[in-house]
Structure formats: structure tokens, C-alpha cells
Specification:
TrfA protein; TrfA; alpha+beta; three-stranded antiparallel β-sheet; Arc Repressor Mutant, subunit A; globular
């Protein structure tokens, strides 16, 4: 009898606790479709998270055989740690990814988006044809395989982390319909964390398409310029060389950097680009953002 008297209240308490928990508002899963609003995004601009633009995830590397990353901590600012798996991505692949994100944010992130492959190529300033279609498909495969963990801090404290407990890819998945010549692409809704609090750069797409062929360093610098609103921007040459994954001697890097700054001046992204000594006697690139 004593045992029954003790069991009954406990059972009732457990039922009441179960009812209480079921009445609490449920938090939506992270991977449910989520509408992403990016102020300033239009046909004239493409968006890229600042922490991605300030890292070596995309870099002006040579075509052909590329470095394969396996849990590589990419070069970036101290407020972000990006661990990456996949082939080193280049500036042409950055163009594809930014265009895919431009299309993807028209619907809630996570929902499939149909994209005609010819229109996609034309949107990034490329020709259409068998070679280009094959290149685009390889790029789609590379972006789908590419996986990262992003840890972002603010004043030394973790702001958010994404990609560790559940994999995060540059694009979540794609399917190609040869009959319609159309890709269907899905983007992981958790990408919204990297775009949150206006932590993204708007890339002037018309000016980017004007940058001459073979000037990938200029394209990479355009992304970097857009991450800061400072009128005069300064970057250490040592820092830039690592960011841009340039492994040739510094004298060659200086020449390539000057050529890239001249190109950005031509398309009116920057003005007065130059290399000079800092107050500490270190070489730095200086330019004025237009």
C-alpha cells in the first residue's frame, strides 16, 4: 500500500511535466527553409559573406591541378576560423557561387531553385558551348563537395559556429535535367548565419564583369575592398600574399599586385593604388575605395 501511495504521485507529476513540455513553443530546426533578406542586393550586385571574402576559400590560383584540402584551417582574419575540405576554389568558381546565391535568395533558403545553365553562364560573363557546360558541371560538383566549419567570434567570445554538428557545403545539392538544360540547386538555410547582421559585401557585378581575363587577383581584391566601408584601405603585403595564396617570391607578388590595382583603377573600383611603407616600416598596399 505504501509503495502504491508513493508511485501514484510520481506518475502524476511525470504526466504533468510531460504536458508542460509539450505546451512549450518548439524551436524550428536549423535546416528548415528560411527566407534571407539582404539589403541592397539587386540585379547590379551580388553578395558574399565578409568572413568568406576575407578568407582564402576563394583565391586567384592557377587553373589545372589544385591543392586538395582536408580539415585545413584557411587563412582569414582572427575573428573567424574556417576549416575546409575540398579542392582549392578559384575566382571563376567564386563567380558561380555568388550567382547561385543570388538566385537562391529569391526563395526561402533550402527550397530547390531551377537555374538554366546557359543563363547562368551568361550571367557570369562566360560563353555557352560544350567546353563551358563541362566546366560549369565540374564547378557544381566542386561546390557541392566543398565542406566547411565556420567559427566566428566577437571580442574573443564565440558568436556562432556552423558546420560542426551537421555538415555545411557551399551548395547543399544539385540535380541536372539534360532535357531542360537546367540545374536545380538547394542551399543550406544555415548560410543565413554567415550573412546575418549585414556581415556581407555587395559586389558591383557590372564592374566585376569588366575586369579583364587573366586578372583574377583584381577580382579577389574587389571582394576584399567591398568588405570595408573605409575610404582609405591598407593591407600588409605579407597578409595579402597569404590571403591570395600566392607562393612565388615577394618581388613577383609586388608586380602582380600593382597590375591588379591598375586594373581595379581602370574599372573604377579603387583609386590611387600603391605600395608604401607603414609607420612600422612594413610594406603595405594602400588604395582609396570608390
Amino acid at each position: 500500500m505504501s509503495q502504491e501511495a508513493e508511485t501514484a504521485p510520481r506518475s502524476l507529476a511525470a504526466r504533468l511535466e510531460s504536458i508542460r513540455r509539450s505546451s512549450l513553443p518548439k524551436q524550428p530546426p536549423e535546416n528548415l527553409p528560411h527566407q534571407l533578406f539582404l539589403p541592397g542586393l539587386s540585379e547590379l550586385y551580388r553578395a558574399i559573406p565578409n568572413h568568406i571574402a576575407r578568407s582564402s576559400l576563394f583565391a586567384p590560383v592557377a587553373r589545372g591541378s589544385k591543392r586538395m584540402h582536408k580539415a585545413t584551417v584557411l587563412f582569414s582574419r582572427k575573428d573567424a576560423v574556417i576549416t575546409f575540405w575540398g579542392e582549392q576554389l578559384d575566382e571563376t568558381q567564386a563567380d558561380v557561387w555568388m550567382q547561385l546565391m543570388y538566385e537562391a535568395v529569391k526563395v526561402p533558403l533550402g527550397e530547390p531553385v531551377p537555374i538554366n545553365r546557359a543563363k547562368l553562364l551568361r550571367a557570369i560573363g562566360r560563353q555557352t558551348g560544350n567546353y563551358e557546360y563541362q566546366w560549369l558541371h565540374r564547378t557544381m560538383e566542386a561546390l557541392t563537395f566543398a565542406m566547411l566549419i565556420a567559427q566566428v567570434t566577437k571580442q574573443g567570445k564565440l558568436k556562432f559556429e556552423v558546420g560542426r554538428s551537421e555538415s555545411l557545403h557551399m551548395i547543399d545539392k544539385f540535380a541536372f535535367d539534360p532535357g531542360r538544360e537546367c540545374y536545380t540547386v538547394s542551399v543550406d538555410p544555415r548560410w543565413r548565419h554567415l550573412f546575418s547582421n549585414r556581415e556581407f559585401a555587395l559586389i558591383d557585378w557590372h564592374k566585376r564583369l569588366q575586369i579583364r581575363k587573366g586578372q583574377d587577383m583584381a577580382r579577389a581584391l574587389q571582394r576584399l575592398v567591398a568588405t570595408s566601408n573605409e575610404a582609405v584601405q591598407r593591407y600588409s603585403l605579407v597578409w595579402l600574399k597569404e590571403l591570395l595564396q600566392y607562393f612565388s617570391p615577394m618581388r613577383k607578388f609586388r608586380a602582380s599586385l600593382l597590375a591588379a590595382m591598375r586594373e581595379l583603377e581602370r574599372v573604377e573600383v579603387i583609386a590611387a593604388g600603391r605600395i608604401e611603407k607603414s609607420s612600422k616600416g612594413e610594406e603595405q598596399a594602400v588604395w582609396q575605395r570608390l
